[in-house]
Write a structure and sequence with these properties.
Keywords: Membrane, Transmembrane, Transmembrane helix. Helix content is 68%, strand content 0%. It is built from 4 helices and no strands.
C-alpha cells in the first residue's frame, strides 16, 4: 500500500530540483546581516515602538531575500538599518535624560529626619 522512499533518493531528487540549483551564483547576492544585528541590538534600548519596527523590517528583509527578491530585500534592509540606528540614538538619549534627571534631583528629594 505505502511506498517507502529511500533517504538518499529523496536527498538526490531535492538537490537536483531547479528550485535548489542556482546556475549563476551572481544572481544570489549576499544579504547584509547588519540590519538584523542592529535591530536586535536596538531592542535593548528603551525606545520600544521604534526598535520593534526595526526588527519587523529586518525580518521582512530576510523573508524577501529567501523568496529571491533581492531588490526588495535591499530596500527593506536599508529601512531596517535606518530605523534601528534611530532607535539606538533615541534610546541613548532617553538613558542620558534619565541619568541627568536622576542625579540632579536625588539630593533635593531626599528626606532628612532631624
Amino acid at each position: 500500500m505505502s511506498h517507502s522512499v529511500n533517504h538518499w533518493e529523496l536527498k538526490r531528487s531535492l538537490e537536483e530540483s531547479p528550485e535548489t540549483h542556482i546556475d549563476n551564483e551572481s544572481q544570489r547576492e549576499r544579504l547584509s546581516p547588519n540590519s538584523i544585528i542592529l535591530s536586535v541590538l536596538s531592542c535593548f534600548c528603551p525606545s520600544y515602538p521604534i526598535n520593534i519596527v526595526a526588527f519587523v523590517f529586518s525580518m521582512m528583509s530576510l523573508q524577501s531575500y529567501n523568496r529571491g527578491d533581492i531588490d526588495e530585500s535591499k530596500k527593506l534592509g536599508r529601512v531596517a538599518k535606518l530605523v534601528a540606528i534611530a532607535a539606538i540614538i533615541l534610546g541613548l538619549l532617553v538613558i542620558g535624560i534619565f541619568c541627568i534627571v536622576h542625579f540632579t534631583t536625588v539630593g533635593k528629594l531626599s528626606f532628612h529626619i532631624i
